[in-house]
Design goal:
Blueprint lengths: L11 E5 L4 H12 L3 E6 L8 H8 L4 E5 L5 H12 L7 E4 L14 H29 L2 E6 L12 H21 L4 E8 L8 H5 L1 H10 L12 H8 L10 E4 L7
Helix pairs in contact: 1-8, 3-4, 4-5
């Protein structure tokens, strides 16, 4: 019997922002498909975390790392740890992120800078290092978390919009250089997903109603809605898919 093209058995996936929300769901889905997981988050416990327990319950190995993605030195030190592993990283899911809300005219510059560092610059720093090893091996799957604001402007989130627009461009730029060498680079663009990052929108009755009225699927997304798409992009089923930003948005962008 031919193995499923979605089978990730024997592969090692690094998932940043894995402690909760979308990152948790992505790590869980990759583990269910057979991948061992290295989970990363600013406050992730080395052992005993909810995501670690979930991954091991699925029969896969889990290692947790606490890395502050606003700290360039910490990201580089984590990359050194990955370089020292006795097995290659096959899948890199760049999901760590943050958001700051304030009108553009009054947006504190230090918050703008921090969002750009966490959501864009650190993503490149880690991907550059992991990508070198993937290129040497002739195989890799890199998946960024983009956003609807990779396509739209948003309101009161100038740093986040700039970073997520940059992620879309970085996805295409890296794909152009690396696809011919066995490394695919793609991004997922979640729509309005019910997580901590969107709690302020969920709590605003008028805004939440306006959002729901535009979503053809008629509901906020769940973090688990990103599980299938990330497994697809990480798998052999997507071997000829690269340089794309795949919206997982309940039809928002098509409205």
């Amino acid at each position: 019997m031919t193995a499923s093209p979605f089978d990730l058995s024997g592969r090692l996936a690094v998932v940043t922002g894995a402690r909760r929300g979308i990152g948790f769901a992505m790590a869980e889905a990759l583990a269910a498909a057979g991948a061992d997981i290295i989970g990363v988050s600013a406050s992730l416990e080395p052992s005993g975390s909810d995501i670690g327990d979930r991954v091991t319950s699925l029969g896969r190995s889990f290692t947790g790392h606490a890395v502050d993605f606003a700290d360039r030195a910490a990201v580089l030190a984590f990359a050194d740890e990955l370089d020292a592993l006795d097995r290659p990283v096959d899948i890199l899911v760049n999901n760590a992120g943050t958001i700051e809300r304030a009108p553009a005219a009054d947006h504190p510059l230090e918050l703008f800078d921090r969002v750009l560092e966490v959501d864009l610059a650190s993503q490149f720093v880690l991907t550059q290092r992991v990508g070198r090893s993937m290129l040497a091996a002739g195989f890799g799957r890199i998946i960024f978390t983009a956003s609807l604001l990779s396509f739209q402007g948003g309101i009161n989130v100038p740093g986040y919009t700039a970073a997520k627009s940059g992620i879309a461009g970085l996805t295409r730029a890296l794909s152009n250089e690396w696809a011919s060498r066995g490394v695919t680079v793609n991004a997922l663009a979640p729509g309005y997903i019910a997580t901590d990052n969107t709690q302020a929108l969920q709590d605003d009755a008028d805004r939440s109603r306006a959002i729901l009225e535009r979503i053809p699927a008629g509901r906020w997304g769940a973090a688990a809605d990103l599980g299938g798409p990330v497994v697809f992009l990480a798998s052999d089923a997507a071997a000829y898919v690269t340089g794309t930003v795949l919206a997982v948005d309940g039809g928002w962008l098509g409205r």
